[in-house]
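Below is the record:
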Amino acid sequence: MTHSPDNSKWAKIEFPSRDRLEVPAAVLEHVAGVYRQQGLDDDRFAAASAELMKCLDLSAGVVVGMTCDHRFSRLFENWVAACDRFAIECRSHTIVFATDVDARQVAQRLGFVVYHDEESELLAAITESRSYGDVEWTDYMYHQNWVIRNLLEFGRDLGVDVLFQDVDVVWRRDPLPALSEAAAAGADIQAMYDGPNRRFQPMYVNSGFMYFQNSVRVRDFWEEVYSRHDMVGYFRSQQEPLNVLLAAHAHRSLHVVVLDEERFANGHLYCGGRTPPADPWVVHHSWTANLEQKLKRYIDSKLWFLPLESGS
């Protein structure tokens, strides 16, 4: 009789078995519909991309992309207000993918290039998410994967890198020069450390702040990520399958950099009794269940730059 070794005292990484994982038929059916809708979205974005590119200043070799809906547009406004407070230019090289008319109007009012597809069946069908990980939130993750894929294609011919970030981010210092320099030195993908969450081992990468060197290798990698909507639907998480794929590709050839959390601070550092860094460049208020928790976290950390009555 043989016994499995007890590695609980020394194993730092443990993958739950996936050998019997079966994606429910309802998820596969939904994902097939999402891909059909996104194929139509591809055509319309391709037709609009040339005009969008003319509106952006891409001379620094990077485009910043964000998605935004009307409920979280105040968080986008706060990112802009923080950039203005710290004299960081953010408008000229940023494109906002607005998922609804109200978010488009906010971004346009603030002087940003905006893409909003009023004909998108997928965006029209997305309803408000109530909390992290629910079905509605997962539909936004399909859209986020689509946005990153199209941003990489958008900048391919010009050799323009891509920074994708969530709207619940604050810049206290422009991160682009350092990220661009690291990409030029060979870093394929740079991403925030998400904290000690076992779901996202072994890379522990947060998908809400990622810098992509726009190379064939990176585009091919993201095509594989994009091809796994089934896993996004199964786990109700884009981040879980992303971390597994990052680890596999990093083992082969992809140069993945998990960013220093003293400069790129994720939300886990602002809860659980942890001490946040004294002078971070970028702060991401993740690790919150809903908008109300985010607003409280902003205010408590003194990173809310809009009139307080609007965010309280």
In short: The beta strands are 62-68, 94-98, 113-115, 161-165, 169-171, 189-193, 205-212, 256-258, 264-265, 282-284. The radius of gyration is 19 Å. Residues 1-11 have pLDDT under 50 and may be disordered.
